[in-house]
Amino acid sequence: MSDHRLAIETDGLVKRFGDVDAVAGIDLAVPTGSVFGFLGPNGSGKTTTIRILLGLIAPSAGSWTLLGETMPSRAGDVLPRIGALIEGPAFYPWLTGAQNLARLDAAGPAGQRATRAGRIDEALARVGLTAVATKKFKAYSLGMRQRLGLALAMLRPRQLLILDEPTNGMDPQGTREIRHLVTELAGDGATVFLSSHLLSEVEQLCTHVAVMSLGKLLAQGPLADLQQSGGARLQVETTDVSRASEVLTRLGLTDVRVSGDTVSAVLDGRLPEECNRELVVAGVPVRSLTTERRSLEDAFVALTGEGFDVTR
């Protein structure tokens, strides 16, 4: 029985190519209404997973549901409620952006001729392509092609949007615009499943996140929980770093470090105000006390033991 509180649910999903498991038995749980970041370096299995979800390739094992419906048997009912952008969308190069959208809308089962022109204009405006609507697709830059793919995904009301690297090929301004657009779509009530290898993108946009590496799902859940797992760090500025270190160690804080006149340690569930009280009682002159939530990059390194592409 599927859980209708989940927009996407997978159970033991596997995709094997020869002797290699590109997707190795993953159990995804994407809450309805979330902006879900599907995070991992290129080659981690994200796009393969998305292709399975949309019924483009068959899994080697496992099952999945979209919008509470069993796939792929219910694909005919489910897919019209889903918008997708995956791996550089394919359009007719000799048609304009607007003509491509009209052709593809007419081909779909839910295309409505009476509202088509208005919906196309609105979709092009939302992705910033109004000025090049009559330009042929073959003359579009990579960023413009991504925008057109997003416009196609939004031509009709969607309950779920599955976006594979939506800012690929975008300049910084375009990336910001797409981030705003994703936020708007979530605000309209859609669940957004966003695949990305950009930590900063996921950190700014997403409410929930899953971390993939080498086909395996290493962690998933609310973004804040993932950042807090392993503990936020307490930073104490003092003229007596030696005594401060002793107090924090005695309280059970871990990874105590001294740098100049600052002592830092992982809180491990301790309250900052409790630490402050114990420091003062012990006679430590506390100049400042702050907590620093670890970044998504810190969380990723803790999970995988490796670095991560954070800029490209």
What can you see in these coordinates?
With 312 residues, the chain is an alpha/beta fold. Helix content is 34%, strand content 28%. It has 11 helices and 15 strands. The chain has helices at 46-53, 75-78, 97-107, 113-126, 142-153, 172-187, 199-205, 223-228, 241-250, 272-281, 296-304, and strands at residues 6-17, 20-26, 29-31, 35-39, 61-66, 69-71, 82-85, 160-164, 191-196, 208-213, 216-222, 233-238, 254-259, 262-266, 286-292. Strands 7-8-9-4-10-11 form a 6-stranded mixed β-sheet, with helices on both faces. Helix 3 crosses helix 4 and helix 4 packs across helix 5 (142-153). The chain is elongated, with a radius of gyration of 24 Å. The model has no long low-confidence stretch (mean pLDDT 86).
Secondary-structure topology with pairs:
Elements (H helix, E strand, L loop, with lengths): L5 E12 L2 E7 L2 E3 L3 E5 L6 H8 L7 E6 L2 E3 L3 H4 L3 E4 L11 H11 L5 H14 L15 H12 L6 E5 L7 H16 L3 E6 L2 H7 L2 E6 L2 E7 H6 L4 E6 L2 H10 L3 E6 L2 E5 L5 H10 L4 E7 L3 H9 L8
Parallel strand pairs: 4-9, 4-10, 7-8, 8-9
Antiparallel strand pairs: 1-2, 1-3, 1-5, 5-6, 10-11, 12-14, 12-15, 13-14
Helix pairs in contact: 3-4, 4-5
